[in-house]
Automatic annotation (TrEMBL):
The lineage of its organism: Eukaryota, Viridiplantae, Streptophyta, Embryophyta, Tracheophyta. It holds the Pfam family MATH_2. PANTHER family: MATH DOMAIN CONTAINING PROTEIN, TRAF-LIKE FAMILY PROTEIN. Residues 97-219 form the MATH domain. CDD domains: MATH. It comes from Panicum miliaceum (Proso millet). It comes from the Eukaryota. This is MATH domain-containing protein.
Amino acid sequence: METSVKPDTVIEASFKFLIYDQSFGKHREHLGNHSFQVASTTSGTSCMIPLETLKTSGFLVNNSCTFGIEFIKVATVKTSAPLETLFVTKMNVFNEAKVYTWEIEDYFALKNPSYSPEFEVGGYRWFIKMHPTSEGNHLSLFLGMKQPNDLPKYSGNLVELTISIKDLENGEDKKSTGRCQFSNNATSWGWRKFISLEDFMDRSKGYLIKGKCCVEAKLAIVGPSKTE
């Protein structure tokens, strides 16, 4: 799903992706939550339905299928941060993406919030921050950059980021992807409602098994940037 967003606005959206089963007259659903903003205008799922299931079920009849979306809640929030114009230095290719895996042995023993060990990508130190939302019904995941010492006041880095919670049993990971700018004034970015705690703790989904879970961050520095 894609939207257009004003620079001073964040749109908090909860929604369902739908695919219609024409044989049984019902939908398969995938719940999504995303904070839409200038740096992240799209959201989706990497595996709505396995391709083989699509081909051999009532979802595809006479080479025709029906997709839909249902909005559950949409809220618009004005940001208090000063507006910035972003300029990215042109690059021929992306810097190679790096993957960091945070293996958590006992989720219930974590502090709130919890922080992963630091790891290095592109010459900078990073960490993952995880905590339940203030309402207590979702899990938040953010990538943080340790305060850099060598970035000029109006410079930063544009980063492409994918954060995943690994499905330890079924291989159907929960993941979200976006682009964001990290600078001296913006050292953290992610998803406030990454996944509902109900889904996260549902044993059948494989995200939390006997207290164990695994969070993965894949990031690539697209290029240096400056703001005006």
